[in-house]
Amino acid sequence: MRKSIEWMVGGQQGEGIDSTGELFARTLVKHGYSVSTYKQFMSRIKGGHSNFKLKATKDRNYYAGDDVEILLCLDKESLSKNEDKLVENAVVIMEGKETGVERPEGKNYQILSVPLKKIATDLGNPLYKNMIAIGISSALLDLPQDILGEIIGDIFSRKGEDVVKANIEAVQKGYEITQEFLPEQIAKLEATENDDLLFISGNEATGFGSLMAGCRYLSAYPITPASEVMEWLAQELPAVGGTVMQVEDEIAGIAFAIGANYSGTRAMTSTSGPGLSLKTEALGMAGMAEVPIVIVNSQRGGPSTGLPTKHEQSDLQHMIYSTHGEIPRIVLYPSTIEDAFYLAAESFNLAEIYQCPVILALDLGLSMNKMTIPSFDSKRVGIDRGKLLTEDQVGEYDEAFFKRYRVTDDGISPRPKPGMKQGIHLTSSNEHGEDGYINEETDVRNKMMRKRLEKIKDAMIQEPYKLQSNGDIDPKNADVLLVGMGSTYGAIEEAMTKLNAEGKETFAHLHLQQLYPLPINELKDLFGNRKIITIENNYTGQLRLLLQQYLPIHDQIESIVQYDGDPFMVRSIVEQMKEVV
Amino acid sequence: MATMKDLRGDVSTWCPGCGHFSVMAGIQKAIVELGYEPHEFAIISGIGCSGKVSEYIRSNGFHTIHGRSVPVAQGVKMGNPDLKVIASGGDGDGYGIGLGHFVHASRRNIDMSYIVMDNNIYGLTKGQTSPRSSHGFETKSAAQSNKEYPVDPITTSIVNGATFVAQGYAGNIKELSNILKRAIEHRGFSHVNIYSPCVTFNKVNTYDFYKENLTTIEAPFETRDEAIASIREHEGLVTGILYEESRDDFQTKLGTDFDMQSLESGPMDEALLKRVQKKFES
């Protein structure tokens, strides 16, 4: 009986690698498994090697895994590029002249050659070869055939009964081949009873959380890996009286959304690093004019056009410091796909409570990959519109010209919507007095700067950081604290477990979800005098630099970094940890 | 009914004699004569001398950044279709850094008005060449005269699909406020370019220059081609409504019942969560 499986399909881009991977992942989710996926692809539409990796486990997992136990090769490169990940006795399924099994000399894996294309063509379409391969994969795990049948029915019913039937036949063919040629390798994957599971990507969860927060407008410009946020909301918003607009450029993307927020609508824009660069002037305007705005920044490999389809976490300083001058802002970074939903919703609350930009950071790994997560809980985050006034509340002020930038104890001014009879007001990107009129007097300037920059000092999400100590080790007693952000969550968790199992030092894991303002006091307590290692996907160790800026930890902190465009492997974290500690 | 006094905002810092006073008065007069109240409008401006108009008219204003008044204004209208939305800026603001947005707004046809104060020069930065400065124009930033030809704003909006295109002159406030009334009432994107002399830095495009050279167009042309031919024939020195067409605006075409305003603090919509979550269930 198996309790987990690591599987990969590779091939030429445009050959249905993604849909093949997704189909197998859904099959495993339906079998009750927790599945994490990772896609590798290139910045082109057709051609070039791409692959889809997944790990399925009985208990919850957050990481697509280091190894490969079953590899479907739909092109020749799939094997050479991934050979190093194959475990002992791995099964490699490949196109061959005739069906047969061989173990290449000096190798630890075996190859099942199948004339996939020929069998598929005989069944009616060469693309069915992916289904034959999925049939082989499922047979190796002795998965019940009806699960696949159901999913195929769901997906292909629109294309007609014949297509559904042919796909199912292709899967069955895969079963037959496996039973004939690899009967020894079949190991049953134990079924689990989880049925309350969602299978969702980070971009979808972000869009979903935004929808639930009452966001009704998104304006953006297409960019990898953020486009799906826009595409997903474009499908969902019209049904609730909202809309998505793909506008002419990144600058328009943020400017439209700022305009919509100014009018009283919850609105957002989504982008990736290069787009955020273009948006930064308007980011400053939102800060100065105190207009709420949520900006989703899904990071990819930089700088410039960099590695547009690869993973990196190198916009940290960009998100925290960008724009000229000094503005209030909040930067959040979900650890997991589940948290992407809740933090997206919370972003809209914080933007309106503090009347400032909120940047929700994602990275390609978090955005584009799917994971199995529990159903969402609508009670965990509510809707809080802050000091947005109703028509009646505006009337109570009894002003012919409403003081938009009224100085209050908490620095947050009550905000009318334009269109309210007694709420006529001026919003301004220039330095201004309480009435919004341009005012450059020094005492006004000082007062307004203090108002804007101090209002977010205590801004805090409900769960300022995630702390995982896996087992008995209290992080305050751990020798070493591993600190990460975003999609490295799962790899760091697994690395920590492995390191603790070796038993020399004790390790705990801290995953920061609020990067700015930093929860300094809480961090100070946790850091103490222990060794701190940041594990991050950038060259300069931006998370380490951030922590060093705010906390007196210069002598106790180091970084493990990786900036080649791929996510961390658990193996490499563990090896590097041994060098650092 | 609002009066001109009700629409008076902050004290102006424009130079005495600046054409922008007339443009502002024209907007105020149009609002009064059409019978609107100040709170029904949102006036979105960019920066430069023209950018101050959102402060000088007492209405809802948003003084934004260089060249971005048009995208912000479109977002305001998308967020609240009940507002009357005016974007206003200068020729440097709108036809330099904001030109791309202007072209796209023309083809998109969101229901709003774009009013540009065109003084053929950068005023607030003290007299540099603008995208509207004529060929051969001499400024501090083009000391040996401007080698480039000016952007042609009204043919640009016409060729890019704007459904209302007009040109006014600050020296003729009666014609100007009539144009602005029609522009504000037009359903769709209306573009009004207004010759508004800069009395401090532009010694060429003066009130006298316009008085001598402008030709009045009495009625809009039937086709875009005719309007463009006439504008070219007069080297752009025309006033009046040049082209008007009735076409569904962007929001009508979307056909969505917008409800972006009614959200209140409280719990998440449980029924919506359950409905959408189904799409991700195993």
TrEMBL record, chain A:
**Domain Pyruvate/ketoisovalerate oxidoreductase catalytic: where?**
14-176
Annotated signal sequence range: none
Swiss-Prot/TrEMBL keywords: Oxidoreductase
- Give positions of region: Disordered: 412-437
One Pfam family matching this protein: POR_N
A GO MF annotation of the entry reads:
2-oxoglutarate synthase activity
Q: Which InterPro entries match?
A: 2-oxoacid/accept_OxRdtase_asu, Pyruvate:ferred/Flavod_OxRd, Pyrv/ketoisovalerate_OxRed_cat, Pyrv_Fd/Flavodoxin_OxRdtase_N, Pyrv_flavodox_OxRed_cen, THDP-binding, Transketo_C/PFOR_II
Pyruvate flavodoxin/ferredoxin oxidoreductase pyrimidine binding domain mapped to chain residues = 211-449
Enzyme Commission designation: 1.2.7.3
According to its UniProt entry, one GO biological process term is: response to oxidative stress
Give the NCBIfam families listed for this entry: OAFO_sf (TIGR03710)
The name under which this protein is listed is: 2-oxoglutarate oxidoreductase, alpha subunit
Q: Which gene is transcribed and translated to give this protein?
A: korA-2
UniProtKB/TrEMBL annotation, chain B:
Name of encoding gene: korB-2
Metal-binding as a keyword? yes
Keyword list (alphabetical) reads:
Iron, Iron-sulfur, Magnesium, Metal-binding, Oxidoreductase, Thiamine pyrophosphate
Under Gene3D superfamilies, the record lists:
3.40.50.970
| Name of the protein | 2-oxoglutarate oxidoreductase, beta subunit
Q: Which Pfam families match?
A: PFO_beta_C, TPP_enzyme_C
**Which enzyme class?**
oxidoreductase
What's the domain of life for this entry?
Bacteria
Q: From which lineage does this chain's organism come? A: Bacteria, Bacillati, Bacillota, Bacilli, Bacillales
Q: Per UniProt, what is one GO molecular function of this protein?
A: 2-oxoglutarate synthase activity
Q: Which residues form the Pyruvate ferredoxin oxidoreductase beta subunit C-terminal domain?
A: 198-254
Q: Which cofactor does it need?
A: Mg(2+); thiamine diphosphate; [4Fe-4S] cluster
Q: Does the keyword Cell division apply?
A: no
